[in-house]
């Protein structure tokens, strides 16, 4: 998943191009610079908030005023002596009389520096936006880094402190939203702090039960797409592995050129195996049309280039930026496994069990034990309660195989709604839903947030 995180950003750019601009900064660069330097009422109020520092106004074509700031939090909410760190927060101001959307980002927040950045729900509701970068990513990385404090519980307390603080400025209704890992965060936030927000909108959020959940493999082999499409994917995977002797040198050359380094005892043959296994998940996750699969009679370089485009080797190396995510996946969030049975005659490995720990986490990192407490608490909360929540999923997205409705009977809920985008992928949003479904979803949001 880590090498495909640009897709949500690209999608929001496409969506923005189809929507009218609500607010525009000054037309001329000189005027814009002057405007950004003004100490407005919003800026003064932000600077007066407790634990807030480094308030800086940034350019925005979407909000009347937009700021980036730092907020101080405890490293460990159960142990004050552990110290503090600063978290990056973005504020998009519309009006003190408007509702507020808190974006429970699961990764870094660098995309919010782009002047055109705007979350879908914030635009739909003409709402203020509070965007919270996840702890241990980009400018919210503690120094020194102690992995013991990277827990979902601590991250949810970060959100609770942000919400509590900013409600001083924005007292109207609040909505939480996030995408993918941010969607998980949005869901967990509602389960642990149910009264912080009035509405929650998690996008494409899985609810995994363990490190290798087990439901994604049968989804890919028996459910997604149609039989012909699944067969086309499988035949491509087999053809690549059959050409192993000629394709492995291409892979080795690419890794040397890019400077990719893998864990000790992880060789090129295993990396190729993992790329091929990941191929089906990645293809369906991002909605790649199977017609883009090359003719199986094409040359080695053609097949290899297509494989790398969908499932690159960099995914299977310890990456400093995404290390925080994989630590959490191994500890609390869970992940997915691979079905090696149908490809076993062509693989160099016996199975892929434990690949997350073996390939994505540094070998020197201490063993991480998976804790099911987060999963159990969230399932229990959703079964017992009926919060105002809207879940968006893509029909063909493998992550939907571990969606919330696999754990509870959503048909019995009055307020909890699930919208599945037909043939949709991990890029499914409210804007991509069929017209009738989209209109119903927007109507609900506006009624709830009045």
Structure description:
The chain is α/β, with parallel strands linked by helices. Helix content is 38%, strand content 13%. It has a nine-stranded mixed sheet with strand order 1-2-3-5-4-6-7-8-9, with helices on both faces. The longest helix is centred in the middle third of the chain and has 18 residues. The radius of gyration is 23 Å and the shape is globular. The relative contact order is 0.12.
Strand content: 5-15%
Structure classification: alpha/beta
Which parts are unreliable, with pLDDT below 50 for 5 consecutive residues or more?
5-29
Radius of gyration: 23 Å
The major beta sheet can be summarized as: 9 strands, mixed
Summarize the structure.
It is built from 15 helices and nine strands. It has 450 residues and is α/β, with parallel strands linked by helices. The protein has a nine-stranded mixed beta sheet, sandwiched between helices.
Keywords:
globular; 38% helix; 15 helices; 450 residues
């Amino acid at each position: 998943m880590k090498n495909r995180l640009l897709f949500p950003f690209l999608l929001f750019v496409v969506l923005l191009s189809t929507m009218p601009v609500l607010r525009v900064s000054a037309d001329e660069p000189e005027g814009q610079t002057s405007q950004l330097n003004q100490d407005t009422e919003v800026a003064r109020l932000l600077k007066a908030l407790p634990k807030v520092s480094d308030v800086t106004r940034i350019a925005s074509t979407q909000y009347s005023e937009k700021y980036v700031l730092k907020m101080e939090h405890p490293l460990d909410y159960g142990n004050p002596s552990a110290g503090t760190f600063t978290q990056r927060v973005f504020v998009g101001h519309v009006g003190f009389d408007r509702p507020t959307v808190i974006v429970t980002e699961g990764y870094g927040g660098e995309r919010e520096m782009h002047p055109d950045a705007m979350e879908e729900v914030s635009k739909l509701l003409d709402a203020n936006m509070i965007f919270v970068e996840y702890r241990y990513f980009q400018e919210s990385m503690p120094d020194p880094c102690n992995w013991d404090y990277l827990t979902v519980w601590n991250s949810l307390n970060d959100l609770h402190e942000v919400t509590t603080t900013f409600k001083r400025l924005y007292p109207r209704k609040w909505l939480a939203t996030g995408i993918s890992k941010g969607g998980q965060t949005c869901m967990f936030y509602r389960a642990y702090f149910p009264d912080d927000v009035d509405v929650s909108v998690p996008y494409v959020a899985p609810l995994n039960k363990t490190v290798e959940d087990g439901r994604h493999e049968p989804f890919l082999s028996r459910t997604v797409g149609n039989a012909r499409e699944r067969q086309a994917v499988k035949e491509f995977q087999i053809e690549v592995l059959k050409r192993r002797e000629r394709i492995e040198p291409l892979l080795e050359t690419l890794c040397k050129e890019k400077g990719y380094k893998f864990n000790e005892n992880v060789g090129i043959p295993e990396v190729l195996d993992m790329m091929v296994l990941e191929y089906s998940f990645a293809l369906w996750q991002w909605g790649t049309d199977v017609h883009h699969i090359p003719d199986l009679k094409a040359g080695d370089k053609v097949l290899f280039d297509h494989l790398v485009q969908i499932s690159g080797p960099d995914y299977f190396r310890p990456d400093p930026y995404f290390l925080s995510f994989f630590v959490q996946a191994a500890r609390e969030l869970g992940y997915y496994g691979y079905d090696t049975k149908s490809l076993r005659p062509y693989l160099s490995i016996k199975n892929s069990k434990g690949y997350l720990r073996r390939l994505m986490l540094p070998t020197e990192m201490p063993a991480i034990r998976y804790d099911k407490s987060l999963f159990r608490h969230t399932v229990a909360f959703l079964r017992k309660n009926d919060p105002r929540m809207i879940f968006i999923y893509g029909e063909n997205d493998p992550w939907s195989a571990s969606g919330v409705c696999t754990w509870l009977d959503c048909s019995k809920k009055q307020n909890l709604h699930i919208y599945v985008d037909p043939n949709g992928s991990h890029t499914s949003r409210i804007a991509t839903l069929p017209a009738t479904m989209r209109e119903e979803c927007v109507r609900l949001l506006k009624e709830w947030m009045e």
